[in-house]
Each structure stands twice: as structure tokens, then as C-alpha cells.
Design brief:
Length: 757
């Protein structure tokens, strides 16, 4: 007699809307197992009955052979009494406490892509083809559980053929909530800016217009892109004029990996990232001989490349273009536009035509941006394709909302051992981005059903995010120092406990002493930190204006070196400063008028870039530092610039006056900018290792985390990593969230969670 057993299995993770139930149904049939499966508010719930051997094989394959878009976070199994039932069913969704994880949006899968270009298929050239293994998820969901009525597909009634697929457990489109076809699904349209639809094939006409040099607004998964031919200088000049984007690089979308490699150099990891279902923008070195115009990324040795993420993008590119510019559809400084009416209004002065459709986007999501560091992906922007995938925390904590900082804003919600970081929102400097912040918090809290017991925010009192936190009633507010949040963010994603040395280099953060921090050496953990070291304070002439004009910081560092005699130095970079402005700068610096003190590493990069003639004025954030890195990559030197380290008030202060003096001598001697830029990078890495050595000697701590926006600089990050590792430090970097302020909310949330214990 065979022994029959029954198990009850609760599965949490990204297991709804990704074909998990039909996967279980087919698995049960393969192993002769009876029972049922259904979506629950917590994920997926199932009961399976059969022999011990059948259940063991069923369970093993259930964990090993998950659908492409599924991610299992946890599985809980227990044995229950058998019922003797026959067959296996997919039951309707159940209610209850909601702890599910929603799938991110995914690109079009290989099976759907084959059907898209198959003339014999009923979805031939249909720009909204999808199945349970691909297509929109997070961007269309309006509520929980993830079923069609709670998506923006609710208004599209399935035709008989699509319904048959949707209801057939053996079909690839079983319960694919966005399932549709040309008979019953969304419809594409090409329109003028005023909304008048143009007759004809929208894709064919769009291709023709792009070839003519026109600029098109194209509706994507998470919002509108602005598309144009990257080989057309006239079109590129025009979009820069219209969008007020003077020099910031544009991302390129190529139809295939082969075409990507025509324009840029790829390694194995970059290829895997480009071809993954997330379809991020990957930062790659430019390849000589590419037909792409220099106006795509002026003064930059890299291109941001991506592959098509939607069937519509496949249709636009395949056989038509080697690449297209695909940049965010927005005005500079505002979030990506995703509501049709608002996009028509805001982009009317930028786009010549709109390639749009009638499937609504519930939540906007810009493209993710990644570069490779030390053989691992490093996020510069974590958004579409990855959000709202959760991040495991070192320990469970109470539910917290963290609202991030001001730049590269993203918010974070925690639940138990999981943190949910939102998509990239943008820089919180206007009403549009603040509204996007509010909408993102509301949507994420709704679909995750998380009611936070506290809200964490940056220490800076004037950030819009701080004001937003203050408007949330009924929960305590926890202010978190900016650089402490960076430290905790890197610790949390590496699941570290205890104390670490935090090397936190960025542009600006409000310090505990009221000054602007940014070149920081911290010692501590989630509960507290000590500031053990920092870069020497220098004045910022004009405050925030100094971040836009690197020459101001060059003047500040020269003033710190030689006082009011600075303009007597024979430096080409100073020759462009008129006499009247020279007097004004000296007055500001000597009398400390509108010159807040800063220890910022980012502003040091700006100063050096201006001194050696790389960049005296930024047209976008970080431009001088980015171009300085590019120049340094062409230089070699057996030694780095000198520096000093002094002990002041119990802290180690890195003094770069010796380096500035050496730079002045090199400039006067006609040294190559590439050599000076390389010596500078090596000097910053060397001072970092030396300060950490001294902190380790005093504290015994040898684990180091590297965080802050400056560590987007690949050359500096790799040099610091190599030097520290050679000295026996354990070095931890970011892999799951950006080192810039896009990862700040994760650190705030974990610090607040510990404060609540």
C-alpha cells in the first residue's frame, strides 16, 4: 500500500502575475500530484497530495525551475491530513493580510518576439504582445491582488480567442493580466502635438519622420521617451535647444547586441545586463568609428546604451535604425511624463509628433542606469525593471517610510525583513517632482499594504522631502544625518551588523555642525556614528552657485592656499575672471559673505577640473567630475600629488593644500592635463587609505564601506578599493542600490528601524 501525504505551501516573493500558478499546475500534472493553487494576499498558497516520492520531486522542481520573472523570497511547508481528492485546480485569488511582492516590468520575451515578427501569427506586428513571462507589471497595477480588474487593462474586454488563452492553464498566456490582441487590446496612434490623429500605419509613419530628423515623443512602459536619429546633428542641436539640455549625454537604444557593439565596447557582464529582462541603460566606453554624432555625449568617453524593452520599440528599431536616442520625456529637472494629457501639454514645445496608445500607465518609472565596477553591476539609477523588487534587510524591523534627500530622490518602505525602494523620482526642486514624490509614496504603500509606524527624513530642514515628512500625521518623525544614511545604506545591502568605517564622498550633505559635509570618514553602525575624519573645510563662494561653476571652487582652494595673492598666479583658468569679479570674490572670501564652509569631495573634484582647464562651468550635475575622470583615464604617472593629514579637535583632517600647490607648479610647467588628473585621482585614493589606516589603528575596525555619489567615479572607486584591500581592509561597496542619493532612503529606513527598537 502506498503512503499518501499532503503538504500546504506558502510562497512569498515575486510570484503573482509571472505565470507561477500555471507553472505549479503543469508541475503537478508532470508528477501526478493532486490539490490546488491560488494567489493569496501574501503571495501564492497551494496544497499538494501524492506519494512521498512524488511530493519530493514536485517540491524540488518548484524551487529550481521558477518562471523567468519570478523571484522566491521564502517558502513555508507543513504536512496536513490528506483529503483523497483527484486532479489539480487553480482556485480564485484569496484575501487576507497583504505581504506580496509585485513583479517589475519586463521586456518582451523570446517567444512573444518570435510571434511579433511571424506573418502567420494573429499578433503579427501587434505592439502590445505579452504573456506570463514578459510585459508590463508594476507600471499598470492599480491594486491587490494582481488580477486584470486591478490593472489599467480593466477596460479592455478579452475577445474569445484571448479569453481561451487566459483561461487555459496549459497556455503561456494563462492569467497573463495584460493579455490582448489587435481585436480586443490597446491601440496605437500617431498624433500631432495638439492631439489630432494622423491616418495610416503609425509605426511606418513614425519611422519615416525619424529619418527626416523629426523628434517624436514615444510612450513606453513607464512613461514617454523623446526619440530621434543620433546621427542627425541638426536634430540633436534642436532637442538640446528645446529641452534646455546643453551637454548632458543622451541614452541610445539599439535593436540588437551586435548594433550596441558597433557603437560601444562590451564585456561579458555588460552583455548579460543589456540582454536581461530589466533592460537597463548600461554605461559603456565609446567605440572608435561609430556613426553616432559627438553631440550625443559631448566631452564624454562613454555612451549609455540599452536594448528595446517593449514590442513597440522593437518595431521602431528593427531593420530601420542602428540606434535611436531614447531620452526621458520631460522638461529638465522634472520627472518623466506618463499621463497622456500632461505629456501632450508639457512636451508640445519639444516633440514634433507623438507615438502613443490608450493603455494607461498607473505609475511612472524612468530607465535604470548601471555601470560595471569590480565585476559587479553598480546602479547609478535604480528604476524600471528592478522596482519594486525588494532588498533583504539584516534583521526584521517595524515598518518605516523613508523619504530620501533632495537629489536623485527615491523613497523606501520596510516590512519585516524586506525593504522596498521606489523608482527614481528625480531632484526635488519643484512642484512637479514633489507631486511625484507624494504619488509614489501613496501607490507603493497601497500595493504593498504597508502602514508605516514612523517616517525618516534627512536632517536638512529645507529639503522638500523633509517638509513632506512633516506633513504626515500620526507617526513620529526621525531625522537622519545625510552621510550616516549613506553608511547605513551600504551596510544594509551587504547585510552587515556592528561597526564599520564609512568612507562617504559626495557633493553635499547637512552636517551636525551646520556646515556642508561631503568628504567624510565615519565610524559607527545603524544606531550611532562618530565623525573620525573629513576633508579640510574650504569656503563655497556663492553657496549653491559654486556647484554650478567649478571655477568658484578653484578660486576658493587657491585662496585657502595663498590668500588674496591668488590672482597673481599665472594660471590660464584665472585669466577668464574679469577684474570686477576678482574684487567681488576677494571681498566674499575675506569677509565670509555668502561663503558657507564645506568639506565636500565633489567640490574638490570641481576645483581641480577648473584649475587644469577641463571645465569651469557645469551644464548638468557632476559634469566637471565626469569629464575629469575621462581625462584621467588617458594619463599615467608613477606618483600622486602630496597631501597632509592633521589632527584637529580629535578628528583627522585631510589637507589638500600641498596638492593644490603642486598642481599650480605643474600647470605653470605645461604638464599634460591627463597626467595631472591621474595624479589627483591617485592622491584622493592615497589619502583615503591613509586616514582609514589611522582610524583602524585607534578603533580596531577593519571593515570599510564606500558610499556617496563620488563613488560613481569608476577610476577613483577601483583605486580606493585596490589600495584598501592591499592594506588588509574588508571593503564593501554598493551592488543593489546606487551609491548616490538614490540609495539614501534605504539607509534612513534602517537607521529609523533601529531607533524604534
Amino acid at each position: 500500500m502506498r503512503y499518501i501525504a499532503r503538504i500546504r505551501v506558502e510562497i512569498e516573493g515575486i510570484v503573482q502575475g509571472v505565470g507561477f500558478r500555471p507553472f505549479i499546475f503543469r508541475l503537478a500534472g508532470r508528477h501526478g500530484v493532486s490539490g490546488w493553487v491560488r494567489n493569496s494576499a501574501g503571495g501564492v498558497l497551494l496544497e499538494a497530495e501524492g506519494t512521498a516520492a512524488d511530493l519530493a520531486a514536485f517540491s524540488l522542481e518548484m524551487e529550481r525551475e521558477v518562471p523567468p520573472l519570478a523571484v522566491i523570497a521564502s517558502i513555508r511547508k507543513r504536512e496536513i491530513p490528506p483529503t483523497g481528492e483527484n486532479g489539480f485546480l487553480i482556485l480564485p485569488s484569496a484575501g487576507g493580510e497583504n505581504q506580496i511582492q509585485i513583479a517589475p516590468d519586463g521586456d518582451v520575451c523570446a517567444e512573444c518576439l518570435g510571434e511579433l515578427f511571424d506573418p502567420g501569427n494573429r499578433r503579427y506586428l501587434y505592439p502590445f504582445i505579452n504573456c506570463t513571462n514578459c510585459g508590463p507589471r508594476y507600471s499598470i497595477i492599480t491594486g491587490i491582488p494582481y488580477d486584470r480588474p486591478l490593472t489599467t487593462m480593466a477596460g479592455f474586454a478579452l475577445c474569445d480567442a484571448c479569453r481561451a488563452e487566459y483561461e487555459n492553464p496549459a497556455d503561456r498566456r494563462f492569467h497573463a493580466q495584460p493579455n490582448a490582441c489587435p481585436v480586443c487590446g490597446p491601440r496605437l496612434a500617431l498624433t500631432e502635438p495638439g492631439g489630432r490623429e494622423i491616418d495610416g500605419d503609425p509605426v511606418a509613419m513614425a519611422v519615416s519622420l525619424l529619418r527626416e530628423g523629426r523628434i517624436l515623443a514615444v510612450k513606453g512602459t513607464g512613461g514617454y521617451h523623446l526619440a530621434l536619429d543620433p546621427c542627425n546633428d541638426g536634430a540633436l542641436r534642436e532637442i538640446r535647444r528645446r529641452k534646455r539640455r546643453e551637454e548632458k549625454p543622451f541614452a541610445l537604444m539599439a535593436p540588437s547586441l551586435a548594433e550596441v557593439e558597433r557603437h560601444a565596447c562590451c564585456g561579458d557582464l555588460e552583455r548579460r545586463l543589456l540582454c536581461g529582462p530589466e533592460r537597463p541603460i548600461v554605461i559603456l566606453p565609446k567605440r572608435d568609428g561609430s556613426p553616432v554624432s559627438p553631440l550625443v555625449a559631448p566631452g564624454n568617453g562613454y555612451l549609455g546604451m540599452m536594448l528595446p524593452a517593449t514590442p513597440l520599440q522593437q518595431l521602431l528599431l528593427r531593420g530601420n535604425f542602428s540606434a535611436l536616442v531614447m531620452t526621458s520625456g520631460n522638461l529638465s529637472g522634472e520627472p518623466i511624463l506618463y499621463r497622456d494629457r500632461e505629456a501632450f501639454q508639457r512636451l508640445a514645445g519639444i516633440a514634433d509628433f507623438f507615438l502613443t496608445h490608450d493603455r494607461a500607465i498607473e505609475v511612472c518609472s524612468d530607465d535604470s542606469v548601471i555601470r560595471v565596477f569590480q565585476g559587479n553591476p553598480l546602479f547609478l539609477r535604480r528604476s524600471r525593471g528592478y522596482v519594486p523588487r525588494s532588498i533583504p534587510l539584516p534583521a526584521p524591523q517595524q515598518s518605516v517610510l523613508a523619504v530620501g534627500g533632495e537629489l536623485k530622490s527615491a523613497v523606501c518602505l520596510t516590512s519585516g525583513e524586506r525593504a522596498f525602494l521606489s523608482q527614481h523620482i528625480g531632484d526635488l526642486k519643484n512642484s512637479a517632482t514633489q507631486r511625484s514624490l507624494e504619488e509614489t509614496v501613496a501607490h507603493l504603500a497601497q500595493i504593498l499594504d504597508i502602514q508605516p509606524v514612523a517616517v525618516a527624513h534627512d536632517l536638512h530642514p529645507d529639503y522638500l522631502s523633509t517638509g513632506f515628512a512633516g506633513e504626515i500625521e500620526g507617526v513620529p518623525r526621525i531625522a537622519v544625518q545625510h552621510h550616516h544614511a549613506h553608511l547605513a545604506s551600504c551596510m544594509a545591502e551587504n547585510r552587515l551588523e556592528g561597526e564599520v568605517i564609512g568612507v562617504i564622498f559626495d557633493g553635499a550633505g547637512f552636517g551636525l555642525d551646520g556646515k556642508i559635509w561631503g568628504g567624510e570618514f565615519l565610524l559607527g553602525g545603524y544606531r550611532a556614528f562618530e565623525r573620525r575624519g573629513h576633508f579640510r573645510y574650504v569656503p563655497m563662494p556663492g553657496g549653491d552657485a559654486a556647484a554650478r561653476e567649478p571655477l568658484r571652487m578653484a578660486i576658493a582652494y587657491l585662496y585657502d592656499l595663498c590668500g588674496e595673492e591668488l590672482f597673481d598666479l599665472p594660471l590660464p583658468s584665472l585669466s577668464e575672471v574679469p577684474d570686477l569679479e576678482r574684487k567681488l570674490f576677494l571681498k566674499m572670501l575675506s569677509r565670509r559673505i555668502n561663503t558657507p564652509l564645506t568639506s565636500s569631495c565633489g567640490r574638490l573634484f570641481d576645483a581641480v577640473a577648473a584649475l587644469i582647464g577641463v571645465r569651469s562651468r557645469n551644464s548638468y550635475e557632476g559634469q566637471a567630475a565626469i569629464e575629469l575622470e575621462g581625462v584621467a583615464q588617458r594619463g599615467e604617472s608613477p606618483w600622486n600629488y602630496p597631501f597632509g593629514i592633521a589632527a584637529e579637535e580629535g578628528r583627522l583632517v585631510a589637507d589638500f593644500r600641498p596638492m593644490i600647490a603642486a598642481l599650480v607648479r605643474d600647470i605653470a610647467a605645461g604638464e599634460a592635463a591627463s597626467v595631472m588628473a591621474r595624479r589627483f585621482h591617485d592622491a584622493v585614493a592615497a589619502v583615503t587609505a591613509e586616514v582609514c589606516d589611522r582610524i583602524r589603528l585607534e578603533s580596531g575596525v577593519e571593515r570599510v564601506v564606500l558610499s556617496g555619489g563620488v563613488f560613481q567615479n569608476k577610476m577613483l572607486a577601483e583605486r580606493v578599493h585596490d589600495l584598501m584591500t592591499a592594506r588588509g581592509f574588508q571593503v564593501f561597496t554598493h551592488r543593489l542600490v546606487p551609491p548616490n542619493d538614490g540609495g539614501l532612503a534605504l539607509g534612513q529606513a534602517v537607521i529609523a528601524g533601529h531607533a524604534l527598537r
